[in-house]
Structures are given as structure tokens and as C-alpha cells.
């Protein structure tokens, strides 16, 4: 039976790296005898917005809900549409309406990739950030008062629910359970943010009781970001609220030098709705149209998608191919950001061939 | 006329580094003929809390408001008092009640200090983080509902006022004005946090009109933390909300390897109330009582205090003395964290003598 994949390339370099993501997936599907069926959608991009006055058609939920997964490029083009409109109108809708309450991002030193940190080698850094993906600081509740006057105030509410917090914690503890080090770090700020964050800590302590074999620690977000730089080897599974997870899952790949190539998965663990797989990088208007974007983030996201669909071996083969091509370091193949003079297509093809 | 300084050592290593801060200040006062008068207070510590059931006496405001500055060590000892109680009961009260709406922290590569970043030398990194220090995400508005049930939710409001945002922006733009590069970077997250952060952006754009000679850019906080690691040389003055500023002003010093020695100033620019000067590091229960804490953060905070009181030359002399002692690298003098076998006192004395 075919796995039906909805493809939304989005904006900017999203449209350039997506074909390479698909190329790699098709090569993998062939090798492992997996039946993938891709359906492309034009919506979820700023150009669509300019034409239709909205990021998505009214019936997007109906159109997409039957798919087995969504494969997304990148969205956003601030000169065309303000970010908070393009993002809330697309990506953040998918995350919420499809209840993709887990955002999962690996932070790993890869061969051939230079880490900005001094003296770290592949193997030294290898952890996951698990981010709550549907509530918390990303709320739509709040507003403005005394508008346009000196006394103007704006208010936005952070909302955390026990259901929302517990389910992301459970996922993170379960993930830690599968890892050799069995360690979980919680990101908090309960010394400053005095209502939601102590609650987060409480729920972590409660959940920890059910996982006696997991070593649990916590750091306030300020010193935690410092420790990502100073002691990235301390971490195994790091769990955080929507905002803290967002920060840590950019900072983590930055520390491993992989911010331009890191993948991410937006997961609905129950499989009630499709999960969404996308590179961490954005649409990068500054290099869009030049054909030089690195497609590894898109390809690696494809690997996470296959793993999610039950093909762990196939996903691993994709990551192995990425690592192999990076290790070879052929400058005709690699894109500029990783020290070569190649193109999106040359790097994408090399990985697909390797698979 | 004497400058009256209120001294609050607080908890843990706060009580160990404070005497060295005072030693250095007294040496400087002697050399530059400045009249400093120190008055020590026991409150503002967890031990005070254990005895009195509160962090501060009821009349703390009256007791302190006439001082020219507050010189603070570090507060917090989670095993005695939960952090959100000890912090909200002391430090955060001072910041609010004394309207210290600016939190200023230098991020600078110092000689003799190893940066965790590859290939960076003193001079490569030198910027300030200006943090809003009285409102924003650190609010006390919110609460819990359906408590103790599956449906439990907690809500905390981020509150930004035009007055609050504009005044910190003005301070940051004014600071950028005094710097050779005249560059200001704003920390935002308007693509995800859809009410307060677009408002922050709006106010930055508005303020920028009054400073045509300042080059302004902005980054979302996630990629901004990444850029602190990847491109710390990009930054000159970075301004952020209370939470974002908090994160960046730990991450910045972490990138320069100075997290254990960085100073901070909590400033009421109008001088209506005393400003407060404290090291960035906390009370560090794990190394408290051993006499090995590095006193440079406390001493450097003293330098910022002198500068604030109008003695820029004297403040610079203190920083020069710190740099000189670090450059010499005498391992009998330096504390462990900077590669020596010395003590809090040996390092403090060496700096005071140098002054
Ligand atoms: C201790 C804590 C409440 C405080 C803060 O978050 O403001 C600290 O991290 C700081 O930066 O001074
Ligand atoms: C684009 C933005 C809204 C988004 C987020 O903050 O969630 C992005 O940074 C991410 O991490 O996927």
C-alpha cells in the first residue's frame, strides 16, 4: 500500500531544496521497496497569499488530513507578507490543527562539518531537543489597550495545560528511555517566570516518578543556553516549552555547525493526524534563486519521515548517505556553506546516488 | 562628599566574593581620591528568610532608597528557599521598586580567558546586551484553573507598555550612539509570539527614526542565539525584552568564556533611585564555602558602579587591573575556573594591589 505524502515547498529556498528531498526519498524508496506517492500543493507560500489573500484555502484541513505525512520546505518572505501572518497562517496552523504536539530536532556533530566550538569532534555532541509544539508562549490570546497613546500596553498570555505539558514530557521521557545514557534535561525559568514555569517544574517532578531509571536535571533557560556552548556533551534529551524548545533547537544545531542542514519533525504521536517534516532553516530570501542552498536539511527531514512511517533502516540509510558525502568532501559537489563550490542539485544528486 | 553604598552580600559565594569587591573598590577610591562609605545589610539572603519568613524587612525601601548605589553579591539557595520566592522577594523587588529598568551587561573576550568558540581572540568580541528589566515576560499576573484535575491550566501574562519599551530602546540607541560602530540589534520573535513581539518591532522601527545614524537590524531570538555562537563579531549593542535579554546576557558571556566573571548593572538612568551592581554568576551552592569562587565578577561590577557614579577613569582602572592580572596568568593567584590553584582571596588581593 502506498504511503501518501503531501508536498508543500513554500517560499524561497524551500522550492529549491524540495526537489532534492524528493529525489533522495525516491532513491531510498526504490532501494528499500517502499511505495511513496507524492502530491504537490501550491498553498502555504507567500505567493499564494498575494494571490488569494490567505496562506491556505478554506478546506486545507480536509485536503490534507488523509495524508500519511506532510513534507514541507520553508515558509516566509517578510518583504511580501509579515512573518507573523505567513507563519500563523500556515505552519503554525498545521502544528495546531493536526495536533503535532512534538517538535523533535537532533543536534549532532557530523563528519566534515566544522563546529564553531573549539576542540569538539563527531561523537562528542549527540542529543535531541524535544519541544512542546502547540501551546505555551505561542498563544493567540491577548491584545492592546490605550492604543496609540503614551499609556499603550500590550498583553499576551502564555497558556500551559496539564494535558499539553504532560504529553510532551511523556514523549521526552520515553525517548530518553531508548537512549544509552537515559538522561533528560528540562529547560525552565522558574526563578523569574513565576507562574507557568514553576508549574512546568512540578509536572516534570511528577512525571519523573514514573521513570526511576532516567536521570533528570533542569536548568534555567539562560544558563542552559550557556551550557549548550560550554558543555554540549552534557546533554542527551532536552525538553522545553514551545519558546524554550524553539530557542534550544536553533542553538543546538548552531553549536554543532549544522544549523543550515538540521531537520525537524512535527509529530502527532498517536497518528490521528499526519505529522510534518521540514528542515530547520527558513526560506532564506538572501540566497533564494541562486541554486546554492544546501539540501541536506530537507533530505534529512525526509529520513525522519521514513523513520516515522516505520522504516527506520531506510531512514538510517539516508543519514548514512549524507554523512558519507560530507566525509568525502568533494568540493565540486558540496555547497558553499559546507566549503564547496557546488549547487543544490549537485549535492542532492550525490546523496541520491550514494543511497 | 561621601558616596553611600549599600552592601548586600546575599547567599553562597556572594558572601565570599563581596569582600574582594570591596577591597578593590577601596584601593581604587584611595588612588582616585573618591570618598566611598559602605553600609552592610544582612537581609536579601535565604538565611534571613529562614529566620524572618521573608527576604526583606518591611521597611527595606525606606532603608535603602537614600543610598547612591547598591552593591549586591548573589541571591538564591534552592535547598533552603525555592528560587522564585528568594528572587521575587529580593533582587526582582529592587529592580522593580527602584525602577532599575536597564540591565546592562558587557560581553567581551578578555586576555587570558579561554573562549569556548574556535579561533576567537581578544578584540574579536566586544558588545553590550541591554535588557529591559522591569516588565515583559517577568510578570506577576496570571494564575491556575481547574487545579489538581486533568483539565488544569496555568496562565501567565506578558505585559509590555509603550513607556517600558520606549525607555529601554532609547537607552540602547543612546548607548549605540557612543560606540564607534553605532550598531543596534533588536531581539524579537514576532514570527511566533504574535502580539507582544510585533509591538516590540513597531516601537524599534519608530525609535530608529530618531537615530538615523544608527544601523539597526533585528533577529528572531532562536536564530539570534545561534548567531551569538556563529558570528559574535556581528554585534555591538543588542537590546531585548526582559526574558530575551536575560538569555542573551548569559549566552553572550558564555561565548566569551566569561560567564563566571561577567558583571551586570541594574540601572535607574534618571538617578531617582539607587542603581544596583552585581556579578552575573549566581550563589553557586556547589562551590560555596570552599573559598575558590572567582571574585572578578564582583570587582568588575564595582567598576561599573564607579563609572555610573561619574568616575569613568577609576572604573577603567579597575578593569585594566583585572585584565593585567589575567594576562600575567600566575597560577598561584588565579582561581581554578581560570586555570590556577589560587583562592578567592589571592585573586582579589592581586587585583587590589595592581590597582
Ligand atoms: C536569578 C534570576 C531571577 C535573574 C533573572 O532572570 O533576572 C538572573 O538570571 C539574572 O539574570 O539576573
Ligand atoms: C518560523 C517560526 C514561527 C518557527 C517557530 O518559532 O516555531 C520556527 O522558528 C521554527 O522553529 O519552526
TrEMBL record, chains A, B:
<dbReference type="Pfam" id="PF00180">
    <property type="entry name" value="Iso_dh"/>
</dbReference>
<comment type="similarity">
    <text>Belongs to the isocitrate and isopropylmalate dehydrogenases family.</text>
</comment>
<keyword id="KW-0464">Manganese</keyword>
<dbReference type="InterPro" id="IPR019818">
    <property type="entry name" value="IsoCit/isopropylmalate_DH_CS"/>
</dbReference>
<protein>
    <recommendedName>
        <fullName>D-malate dehydrogenase (decarboxylating)</fullName>
        <ecNumber>1.1.1.83</ecNumber>
    </recommendedName>
</protein>
<keyword id="KW-0520">NAD</keyword>
<keyword id="KW-0479">Metal-binding</keyword>
<dbReference type="InterPro" id="IPR050501">
    <property type="entry name" value="ICDH/IPMDH"/>
</dbReference>
<keyword id="KW-0560">Oxidoreductase</keyword>
<feature type="domain" description="Isopropylmalate dehydrogenase-like">
    <location>
        <begin position="4"/>
        <end position="351"/>
    </location>
</feature>
<dbReference type="InterPro" id="IPR024084">
    <property type="entry name" value="IsoPropMal-DH-like_dom"/>
</dbReference>
<dbReference type="InterPro" id="IPR011829">
    <property type="entry name" value="TTC_DH"/>
</dbReference>
